[in-house]
Amino acid sequence: MINDLSGQAKATTGQTRADGRQWNQLRPVRFQNHIAPYATGSTLVECGNTRVICGVTVEETVPRWMKEQGVVGGWITAEYSMLPYSTLQRKQRDISKGKLDGRSQEIQRLIGRAMRAAIDLEKLGSRTIWVDCDVLQADGGTRTAAITGAYVALILAIRKLTTDGKLSVNPLLSPVAAVSIGIVGGVPLLDLCYTEDVAAAVDMNLVMNAKGEFIELQGTGEEATFSEDQLAQLLSVGKQGIKELGTIQQAALA
């Protein structure tokens, strides 16, 4: 088991990380909206050196399984990919391997679940919303950046559907954001960059809404275990990060 963090977390408050941040500080977050003109909604989200383009498109139909089962409303699904030049060494495209790799499949399902938690699917109407997240540059936290950016792109798309008269009722539930948290060198850290991520004894991804409700918590000990108290400390700093991200999202949508 890793060491207790209660005193160490306080001790690191005045110390900085490799990129100059405090232990409980997010990387600089920036949104550039309408990055893809043909998408219904889009944004380029930057979390430090991690950059992800999130684009939303709409199809006026629903998946066949919804029709067959008589499910009312619409559907939201996602696709995620890392572009070949997003990492230091070229990443082979999934299409060249003939199948989607397990990591990409897991992440795009996570993005889809997160976005469905933000929308009342019945009020969405009989349509499918596609959320495409493409990583331009990866420096840790690509899945959490994708979720945080996807929500902004999704809201821009919902606004356009409303303006175009395709939505008569507001389908929005609660804003959604995501952040990584972990323990590196016995210290809890918020929003891990790549070098911190690979060195983490405990690595977690937290997805929450603005009501403070959990959507998903992915956590694992990397050849280590962690206690309930340590989990509580990580969740505390993670929830604060989610709150800050929500404020930045709303500013980007203002």
What report would you give on this structure?
There is one protein chain. This protein is of the alpha+beta class. It contains eight helices and nine strands. It has one domain: Ribosomal Protein S5, domain 2, CATH 3.30.230. Helix 4 crosses helix 6 and helix 6 packs parallel to helix 8.
List the main descriptive attributes of the protein structure presented here.
about 250 residues, alpha+beta, Ribosomal Protein S5, domain 2, 8 helices, 9 strands
At CATH level 2, the architecture is 2-Layer Sandwich
Strand order of the largest sheet: 1-2-3-5-4
How much helix is in the residues? 25-40%
Determine and state the CATH class.
Alpha Beta
- Tell me the span between the first and last alpha carbons: 45 Å
State the CATH superfamily name.
GHMP Kinase, N-terminal domain
